[in-house]
Amino acid sequence: MARLRRVALDAAAAGLYVFPVQPGGKLPAVPRHSAERCRRHGICAEGHQGWEQRATRDRAQICRWWSGDESARFNVGIACGPSGIVVIDLDTSTEPLAAWGGATTGREVLDQLTARHGQTLPDTFSTMTPTDGEHLYFRMPERLELRNTHGGHGHSLGPLIDTRGGGGFVVGAGSIRPEGAYLVAEHGRIAELPDWLTTLLTPPSPPEPRHGEPLALPTRRANAYVAAILAGESAAVEQAPKGQRQITLLTAARTLGRLVGGGELDADNAHALLLDAAAVHIGVDGFTQAEADRTVTRGMSYGARAPRRIDRRHSTADAEGRGRSAGEALANATANWITENPHGRADRIEHLPSPHGPRADLDDLAPDPGA
């Protein structure tokens, strides 16, 4: 359809970065070299780029994307980060929210939130979704990248309200789904995000981390302990539900970062392990490889500032473990764990201290708002 190509060109002319979305759907139609199958992060040798990196305002590229019988039917995705915008996504529900006066829409929740803060919302460009939701477009504050939030979790504005910023996208007006079309609800300029909303959506800076004391364990038990941490954090990331993916990945990265800081793990291998675990989420609901990479880097960097060391006590039974370098721990840990506990259960080491440190530490690092 030439109409959808015109929609994409008009959005680009308005300063928005666009990319193709599956016909009749809301999932990215790029990259061709998919992040789900690519074992690397960033831009790999084969030229892998995610939808956020490929989003463009270039007319020639847009015309190439929306040409031919099939590709002309692509819906239009708008990459919020490159476009410098934050989109407030107001959803609907059939269940009244008692804490919000029986509200059943994100619009009602937002209106109540606005009133509670004694504020008003500026007029801004907005669209209606095929399922009666609303997308309110706002300009991102300068020198600040706000990330995605999921209603009712982390630093979200409230239930039934998601936000899309860096690492997120929305489907643009004019796109079509089986339920109907995305329509412009209010024409005009995109307003600046109000300061009070910026404050609510900005996570606080983390406090200085507390350093843990070395954990004294015999070498073989220490290896099993490290292996159990790796297996547990990897499984937690893989199984993280929608709305908890980024905080789970961030927490896992912080945990492994502490062990990297203590010389127990190799940083590159730990980073790769977490990205492998997160691979199942890439491309789902706008969660990108770049976002996963940033989350792991951020969490490991923070965790390394509170190093976790294991004081290996040597004995005759542990002689084979002597002299192992910290870099070997990650490579050998899983094999050691499987050998000592072939069923993959952690019940033999339940009494060991938590690798996260005191429970209060888990809340020290505020999550990058995300999916």
Automatic annotation (TrEMBL):
Residue ranges of the region described as Disordered: 304-327, 339-371
Transmembrane regions: none
Protein origin, superkingdom: Bacteria
Domain DNA primase/polymerase bifunctional N-terminal: 8-197
Entry-linked Pfam families: Prim-Pol
Ranges of biased composition (kind: Basic and acidic residues): 313-325, 342-362
SUPFAM superfamilies given in the database record: Prim-pol domain (SSF56747)
Protein name in UniProt: Bifunctional DNA primase/polymerase, N-terminal
Organism listed in the record: Pseudonocardia ammonioxydans
Lineage, uppermost ranks: Bacteria, Bacillati, Actinomycetota, Actinomycetes, Pseudonocardiales
